[in-house]
Automatic annotation (TrEMBL):
Protein name: Uncharacterized protein
InterPro entries for this protein: SEC_C_motif
Superkingdom of the source species: Bacteria
Organism encoding this protein: Pseudoalteromonas prydzensis
UniProt cross-references to Pfam families, sorted A to Z: SEC-C
Length: 192
């Protein structure tokens, strides 16, 4: 099971996430842009072409039971349109992006934060999300570097919860939902 890009974000889900403005914006990576380096990519683009930084969120889903909101920077062009200039192997074409200027307040050492939102109320899921949040805090506090020993500890703790998380994902995935495994197929034509 892995995080995956939801094909659509319903209005009820957006409300739960506290998102009022969701846009689909083009992904047009610059030739010299680097993966996982959106703020530097945007800054470089603006120096060459003008525009400004627009902060916001992009979304991925774990097993139809949790949403990861990843802070992201895109270019706001002089005509006020938005474009993502960062390459991403999972997101091409149009990117679901929720502008949010408050993201700027949470940047640490030029690293952007992540938020985790449970879609169901479950103790195991809360613990699992807590581990992910703890790992993200360590990333932000340590200039993006996490020691291998810390990563192994996070993986070990998460692996103890994985059977319960997988069971929840199966339980809360309908036959016509995207499969909890992250394949992109409907559940009925995949693991369901």
């Amino acid at each position: 099971m892995q995080y995956f890009d939801l094909s659509e974000l319903s209005s009820s889900l957006l409300k739960k996430l506290g998102v009022e403005d969701l846009r689909k914006i083009p992904v047009q990576p610059e030739p010299d842009a680097k993966f996982l380096n959106c703020l530097d990519n945007v800054t470089s683009y603006i120096e060459k072409n003008g525009g400004s930084v627009q902060f916001g969120w992009i979304f991925s889903c774990l097993g139809n039971i949790s949403i990861k909101m990843t802070a992201h920077a895109v270019v706001k062009t002089p005509d006020n349109s938005l474009v993502c200039v960062t390459p991403n192997e999972y997101r091409t074409g149009l990117l679901k992006f929720a502008p949010d200027c408050s993201v700027e307040n949470f940047i640490q050492n030029n690293f952007l934060p992540t938020k985790f939102v449970p879609l169901i109320d479950d103790q195991s899921l809360s613990e699992y999300i807590g581990i992910e949040a703890e790992q993200d805090k360590l990333r932000l506090d340590n200039l993006g570097i996490i020691a291998q020993s810390d990563l192994e500890q996070f993986k070990m703790r998460a692996s103890l919860l994985y059977p319960a998380i997988l069971s929840l994902a199966k339980k809360y995935t309908g036959r016509n939902d995207q499969c909890y495994c992250g394949s992109g197929n409907k559940s009925k034509k995949c693991c369901g």
